[in-house]
Request: fold
Amino acid sequence: MLPQAGQARKAIWDAVNPHSGKKRIDEAFPLEIRRATRNHEMQIEFKNGSTWQVVGSDNFNSLVGSTPAGIVYSEWALADPSARAYLRPIIAENNGWQIFITTPRGKNHAHDTFNAARKAPGAFAQLLTAHDTEVFNATQLEIERLAYIAEFGPEMGQAMFDQEYMCSFDAAILGAVLGRWVSRARQTGRIQDGEVYDPNGAPIVISSDLGFRDTASWWFWQPRLDGYGLVGYTGRSGLDADEWIEELKEYLTKRSMELGAIWLPHDARNKTFATKESPMERFLKAFGAQRVHVVPQTKIADRVNAARRVIERCRFDELECADGISGLTSWHYDYDSKTKTMSKEPAHDWASHPSDAFSYGCQVMEMAKPPAPKDQRPRFLEDMTANEIFWPQHHQTRESDGY
Reply:
């Protein structure tokens, strides 16, 4: 499994060994031992009944229901972490195995996988730098380091060298959109292990990026006096609007969270040939017009700037938002080595879905009023409403949440 099915076809299925001129799969699996070769599915069936298949993490849903004995995740740091979550029960049931091979891309889900494997009974973890593998000698490595510096500058060039050759999880990601801001949030303790959600605080605001074949992503925000608490994240592909409505209701109910508002992206108004109603219309029926809104359409650059401003005031629940935080860390611009320039817009991959949903939410938070602090001045009963007398906290939250 590579990050994308297109990559898998190019790098594995169609790859040719330049030294022999033969396809690599033909060298690995001679025709004599095969029963069938399915090019469209990138799958080989052997005469003994076993199969071998090349897949991408961007289409892992197609594997649900299959029974693999083992999975090799190549470039795991760039893959969609949801793939492992959905395929892990299958591997466990089959008493199978998983191998994760990767170059670090910051402290995202690959970093978590590596640290977990170092501690888990029966698992094996190993980090090998270019010095350990001895593929390159010291002179070659120094030439590579200087070449990176010449191309990317002293700071980024050294970071790129450390990432690619020294397997450093601390190196900056080339073209990272929010990587530096996420690192600062972690360093200042704003990414914490639980205890972000306040049961007595403001109602929850949900921001989203919708998709069916692509992943739909949902962030759960709680406005606070000091900023915003990111108290939850969920996302995956293959669900339609009605299924997500039930998922969101269940998520809120399980955690006893009160819903304040749901903000959908501007394309939620669009209908398809397969549906009579738009996602917006379905959410309006389920949650009511007072709670369902659409984020104003703006340029991606404006959303990125909003995200960089708002994230400085965000506190994240690391357990509830693990996949979302990985997405924010991995969100990046593509780098063109020929023109030596970054793409105008962030790359469209698994990380773009949680990041788009987050940036939509940041736009909303900049428009909203923060919760008002409690009024410490003494007040006379004749100046207060019945709601303020008997339910002061509830009244304050609902009147000042800005939604």
Q: What stands out?
A: The first strand starts at residue 34 and ends at 38. Residues 186-367 form a domain with the Nucleotidyltransferase; domain 5 fold (CATH 3.30.420.280).
